[in-house]
């Protein structure tokens, strides 16, 4: 490690980035304020639903599921918007619209207004679906390439801190000020974030313009001849000061260059490969995106093209994993889905625990719920830090640690099932969140190491579709268990512990089999199979 690389791993490097890059500092402050408001909003929303729904678990699950539906529906269109229009303007207008929508939530006070809560929540997360891709795509244009890992870690660190402190403050605010005041506070944070974006107008090159290398740190020539990204030396860029923990709001934040390589720009998957569109994703240089929608008229045509490409991406990803060469990839794409089946019902459980009088030693239900969500931030921060220290960044070790994360889920739910006080419930939440953040980081890294660069976009699109569906299923099951199966919090915690135990055994067996096949911690069990090699072996796809 040279001196420059070593310096980049110090706390001073993060401070220097914020001090000497005013554009990123403005964006980071806006994101920090926005994240704080999101926790106020989330605690207030769950509290209001619990109050208006009369304790209905299904209605509580529905508001949690609504967070993910817009992301699944609109992210192809959101990518087009982020590539065709000024990303600064997308951020600003998304925040302004969200401010109006969230302010409208303050009008929801009576049970007969509950329908309005769900409609406005859907609109809020629809705006978030457009905000997030533009926010991620903006960072490389204002941060030099050699500092991008610092910016990513700062974003993750900020979310973890806001999870730890913002959620507890949100619970206190709901308890003292009421839900309407919290919604108005969140609307104010959106206005602050919109102002931060407004300050960057005219300072950031719009999409489609070649960037100045000195300003952005990105070589324009590299955009024309992309290379497969090298996997990071370690899943966390700096275990001492941050982690790549997932965010409920930004669960698709892994950036990968999804364009095919020059040698394999026409993937052949199965006998129908000739009919597959070459451009299965709209990632990459905006000029290439514009070319890919030739014949489409305006943004509406581009958005329709994006949806078609997304369907093609899922089809190609499915065909790839169905080949016998890639059966291991077919297993890896289910890691996040297995995790979401285990953690999806956790928010429903947290709300029910916060309503129990004997758990309210730290305050009323809203305050207790805030402390439980603050435990999520703590677990997401420390989880990858701990596992990074014991996991070498090699494929088989990563797979073994992924199996171990399900032990965190199982222990967390068992502790929750027997918890005599809120302190034990908070500790169980830390354990579960440590497992969820680690499984998110490591499962993404495994696919980056295993899947050829020209197919990573399609495989990750399939992975995210599976994850979103299973997360919704698990969240819905939490409410179904309370309302229909008449379970209490302890029985449901026990059921989720059983689900975690099942996946712990299943993934442990799979990791052991792969270890035995490789004859140790070598790379032999996970050799990449390029599309060219797949074609030459007979185009075996289902």
UniProtKB/TrEMBL annotation:
Keywords recorded for this protein, A-Z: Cell membrane, Membrane, Transmembrane, Transmembrane helix, Transport
Main localization of the protein described in the UniProt heading: membrane
SUPFAM superfamilies: MFS general substrate transporter
Disordered as annotated region, ranges: 221-257
Keyword RNA-binding among UniProt keywords: no
Any one GO molecular function term: transmembrane transporter activity
Superkingdom assignment: Eukaryota
Membrane topology: Multi-pass membrane protein
Any Pfam family hit: MFS_1
Claim: Transmembrane helix is one of the keywords in the record: yes
GO cellular component term, pick one: plasma membrane
Biased composition (Polar residues): 237-246
Protein name (record): Uncharacterized protein
Species assigned in the record: [Myrmecia] bisecta
């Amino acid at each position: 490690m040279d001196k420059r690389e070593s310096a980049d791993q110090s706390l001073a490097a993060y401070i220097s980035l914020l001090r000497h890059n005013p554009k990123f500092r403005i964006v980071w402050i806006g994101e920090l304020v926005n994240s704080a408001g999101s926790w106020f909003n989330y605690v207030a929303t769950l509290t209001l639903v619990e109050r208006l729904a009369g304790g209905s678990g299904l209605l509580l699950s529905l508001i949690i599921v609504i967070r993910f539906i817009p992301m699944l529906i609109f992210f192809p269109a959101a990518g087009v918007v982020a590539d065709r229009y000024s990303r600064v303007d997308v951020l600003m207008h998304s925040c302004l619209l969200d401010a109006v929508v969230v302010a409208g939530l303050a009008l929801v006070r009576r049970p007969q207004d509950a329908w309005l809560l769900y409609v406005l929540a859907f609109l809020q997360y629809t705006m978030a679906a457009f905000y997030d891709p533009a926010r991620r795509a903006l960072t490389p244009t204002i941060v030099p390439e050699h500092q991008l890992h610092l910016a990513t870690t700062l974003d993750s660190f900020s979310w973890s801190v806001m999870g730890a402190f913002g959620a507890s403050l949100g619970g206190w605010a709901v308890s003292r000020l009421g839900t309407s005041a919290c919604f108005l506070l969140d609307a104010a944070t959106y206005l602050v974030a919109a102002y931060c974006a407004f300050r960057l107008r005219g300072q950031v090159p719009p999409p489609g313009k070649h960037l100045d290398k000195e300003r952005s740190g990105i070589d324009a020539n590299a955009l024309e001849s992309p290379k497969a990204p090298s996997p990071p030396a370690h899943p966390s860029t700096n275990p001492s000061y941050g982690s790549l923990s997932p965010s409920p709001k930004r669960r698709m934040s892994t950036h990968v260059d999804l364009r095919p390589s020059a040698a394999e720009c026409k993937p052949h998957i199965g006998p129908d490969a000739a009919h597959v569109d070459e451009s299965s994703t709209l990632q990459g240089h905006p000029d290439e995106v514009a070319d890919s929608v030739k014949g489409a008229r305006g943004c509406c045509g581009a958005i329709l093209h994006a949806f078609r490409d997304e369907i093609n991406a899922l089809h190609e990803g499915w065909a790839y994993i169905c080949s016998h060469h890639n059966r291991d990839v077919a297993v890896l794409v289910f890691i996040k889905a297995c995790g979401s089946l285990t953690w999806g019902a956790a928010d429903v459980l947290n709300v029910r625990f916060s309503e129990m009088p004997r758990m309210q030693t730290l305050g009323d239900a809203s305050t207790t719920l805030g402390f439980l969500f603050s435990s999520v931030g703590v677990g997401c921060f420390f989880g990858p830090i701990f596992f990074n220290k014991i996991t070498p960044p090699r494929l088989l070790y990563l797979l073994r640690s992924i199996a171990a994360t399900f032990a965190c889920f199982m222990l967390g739910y068992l502790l929750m099932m027997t918890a005599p006080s809120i302190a034990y419930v908070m500790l169980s939440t830390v354990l579960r969140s440590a497992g969820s953040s680690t499984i998110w980081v490591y499962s993404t890294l495994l696919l980056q190491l295993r899947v050829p660069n020209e197919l990573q976009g399609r495989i990750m699109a399939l992975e995210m579709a599976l994850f979103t569906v299973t997360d919704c299923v698990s969240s819905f099951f939490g409410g179904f268990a309370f309302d229909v199966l008449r379970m209490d919090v302890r029985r449901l915690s026990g059921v989720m512990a059983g689900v975690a135990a099942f996946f712990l055994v299943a993934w442990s067996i799979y990791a052991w089999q792969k270890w035995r096949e490789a004859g140790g911690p070598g790379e032999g069990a996970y050799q990449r199979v390029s599309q060219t090699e797949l074609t030459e072996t007979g185009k075996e796809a289902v």
